[in-house]
């Protein structure tokens, strides 16, 4: 039977049977082109005219699948099965806004785990570009309408370098409920809570203000529910922007070092040059080297002159600091001209007005806590 014939017959049967209309289903056929001549299923026997091409039916009303079932008992059973499959992983029953897990839906710690704990997605805030010392991160609340209750978010941050094992060293951990919203965290971290694109969704944000320039940082976030379960980790790894360098001062230091190296260098002049180069930052030292070589390389480059005037040991102590500068920042520091730009950024600092007993984990802390916002 051609498909169009099947649809026409089904439509005719529905129109003739007024007592058993199919709830939520509408069948409509339209003439929109013809089937290709190579399709033998579209040809009607005895007729040369080709049947119309079937058109995808449009959805004009959305109803749950169980609403299409006429029998009350079957409909309730189907509804319960669908709710259990969607909210409780098919291993429990939905009771109001939580899941009652089956006896076989417990983890190795004896905690019910039929209700999944969705992981939060940590991301850089699109409203603020990371700087050399400030980074803003945000994530949407993952609290489902039914099932597990998120009581807290734990944010870990650490600086990654060759001296730390990224797997063994977890860094500093901050509880969003106990440390950030309560205002007990360091002044270098500010937290906020606002509404996402959907009014019912909360958007949490954390601003780190005291990071080191040109540093590689790893931020890890996970959710904690009222039973103590942890969600999967969400990680953001980034390198902060290059530090600010006073180009004019760097050029002045390069001239000073050249004058100290020029001619006979006494012990006092050697110590002055050594102290000057050790007191500046690694990025400033890189820029001093750039200016020195740009102006005075014909008298010997910076590395050779430092080793010749200060000796291998002191020169090594100075030059090894250049290894701390990343390849990205070293490329920028070789630029012919550096322009400094300073921006100010207002942000909100949150402090909880409620006093909670230590060690208590409340689901309402993320939802119902009264928070005072300070404009910094």
UniProtKB/TrEMBL annotation:
GO terms for molecular function: inositol 1,3,4,5 tetrakisphosphate binding. This is Astrotactin 2. GO terms for biological process: neuron cell-cell adhesion; neuron migration. Residues 118-240 form the Astrotactin-1/2 Fn3 domain. InterPro entries: Annexin-like (IPR040685), ASTN1_2_Fn3 (IPR045574), ASTN_2_hairpin (IPR040510), Astrotactin (IPR026995), FN3_dom (IPR003961), FN3_sf (IPR036116), Ig-like_fold (IPR013783). GO terms for cellular component: endosome; membrane. It comes from the Eukaryota. It comes from Malurus cyaneus samueli. Residues 242-334 form the Annexin-like domain. Residues 338-372 form the Astrotactin-2 C-terminal beta-hairpin domain.
